[in-house]
Design a protein that fits this description.
This protein is of the alpha/beta class. The protein has one domain: Rossmann fold. The chain contains 5 helices and 5 strands. It has a 5-stranded parallel sheet, sandwiched between helices. Helix 3 links the parallel strand 3 and strand 4.
Length: 120
Amino acid sequence: MDNLKILLVDDEDDFINTLAERLELRGLKSLTVHDGESAIRLLDTEQFDIMLLDVMMPGMSGLETLKHVKIDHPDLPVILLTGHGSTKDGMEGMRMGAFDYLVKPVNIKDLLKKIEAALK
């Protein structure tokens, strides 16, 4: 999983910054944005190996963002991040083309396993 470029999309500053740091400690590069619109714009100019996408965000939701991503970047693996009560949204996202979903708070070992599986 060396040289991976991960796009992290989440509106919670503390969560996304901590996750980015934990990934970096494991040698994984990530770029963070705080909303779906920014993620879509960034995907038009940069290439990523995988996207970690929060489901519940103000403005464009994670599922709306996923719909746009899958139209323009159908091969980009997306792992959804859901809150405790939104596993239904995670399952809906998988029907829409997400690789899988994880419930927050995210266990870093589980996340790394999902990333590795998504990239195979």
